[in-house]
Amino acid sequence: MRLILLGPPGAGKGTQAKVLIDAYGIPQLSTGDILRSAIAQKTQLGLEAKAIVDRGDLVSDTIVNGIVSERLDAADCKPGFILDGFPRTIPQAEALDLMLAQKSMALDAVVELSVDPDELVRRISMRSKESGRLDDNEDVVRKRLEVYVAQTSPLVDYYRGTGLLKTVDGMEPVNVVTAAIKRAIEG
Ligand code: AMP
Q1: Ligand 1 pocket, Cβ-based, cut-off 6 angstroms
Q2: Regarding beta strands 81-84 and 2-6, do their DSSP bridges make them parallel or antiparallel, or are they unpaired?
């Protein structure tokens, strides 16, 4: 099962990915997690990405495309994967199409989690208390939502055009959303 979880910050992509990992025995590939870990370890990548991530902007397509291409070659991605937070721009989606074709892999579905903007802000401000993520504060959250609308939301039409898009109501409780995702991708 090769999946993309698409949706704005706070839509529940990470939460759902963690449940789907167990359900399908496939790894979650979160570019945000990879970048946060590089930042924590102060690697070259982390040093380059820190200021950009902290202010809620997008790291360059070249950097994230490289991260994902390398990650897809790991043995645990053989049975499939859940992409969470990638692609985030049309050029990233095009790069993903190319790398999957080169690796003879095909996507099974792109699941869009749809959530009202007010609910997103409420969820992220709750998360900020637990996560300690510098990019979960109010100004940066607003910026990340703007970036989503401007740069990532066009992916909904992009994937609708491929016939892979499944839209799921992300306002429901976690287990209801999980069930809806499973129905959407298995049905
Ligand atoms: P996330 O955990 O997915 O919300 O990502 C946190 C931050 O990491 C984003 O606000 C971006 O700064 C950066 N990031 C994660 N994924 C990408 C991506 N696919 N393209 C560019 N920047 C990304």
Answers
A1: 9, 31-32, 35, 52-53, 56-59, 64, 85-86, 88, 92, 135, 144
A2: parallel
What spacing in Å lies between the alpha carbon of 187 and ligand 1's midpoint?
Answer: 30
Query: Is residue 133 left, alpha or beta, with left meaning phi > 0 and alpha meaning psi from -120 to 50?
Result: beta
- The larger pLDDT score, comparing residue 160 to residue 142, is at 160
**In the chain, where are the structural domains located?**
2-178
CA 50 from centroid of its chain's CA atoms: 18
- Give 86-113 as a 3 state SS string: CCCCHHHHHHHHHHHHHCCCCCCEEEEE
pLDDT in tens, 33-86: 999 999 999 999 999 999 999 999 999 999 999 999 999 999 999 999 999 999
**CATH H-level, domain 2-178: superfamily:** P-loop containing nucleotide triphosphate hydrolases (3.40.50.300)
Provide the mean pLDDT of the chain: 95
* Contact by Cβ (8 Å): 46, 39: yes
With H, G, I as helix, E, B as strand and everything else as coil, classify residue 5. Answer: strand
**CB distance 88 to 58 below 8 Å:** yes
What pLDDT is attached to residue 77? 97
